[in-house]
Amino acid sequence: MSQTPLPAGKLTLANSPWSAETELQVQFYDLDPMEIVWHGRYVEYMEAARCVLLDKLGYNYPAMKDSGYAWPVIDLHLRYAAPATFGQRIKVAAAIVEWENRLKIDYQVSDAASGARLTRASTVQVAVQISNREMCFVSPPVLWHKLGLTPSAP
Q1: Which of 97, 105, 96, 100 is nearest to 141 (CA)?
Q2: How far, in Å, CA of 74 to CA of 141, rounded?
Q3: Cα separation of 125 and 65, whole Å?
Q4: With left for phi above 0 and alpha for psi between -120 and 50, is residue 66 left, alpha or beta?
Q5: What distance in Å separates the CA atoms of residue 53 and residue 85, rounded to the nearest whole number?
Q6: 22 DSSP assignment
Q7: What is the pTM for the complete model shown?
């Protein structure tokens, strides 16, 4: 397997070699009493993009479980810039920006037509060995391989 080329400097949503996006339409049930998307729905939008990204890598949740690891979200950050509204088409982009010791994914929710940013977010997931429920302090080799990388030596 050839090594995935990495850009110089810090990985971001814009330069990560591991990215994906999905397009969704805001539904009526996503709205709060102010007739904008309820803040908690953005987590579901991020999950949709994360699943597209993991499918693209061949390491979705069933594959993670089959490899012996669970990857719970342990940290979540959201920054809202503008609200999404009923019927609006939105794009949700996701990209892996860290993988060595944890899986950090950055997200951006934007208006599908104009590209205007609505929300930025990130999640952090850690590998937990299913057999003993112990958290791994280094990402397991299976993740490195799915990313097209060679694990670093201990």
Answers
A1: 100
A2: 20
A3: 14
A4: alpha
A5: 25
A6: E
A7: 0.94
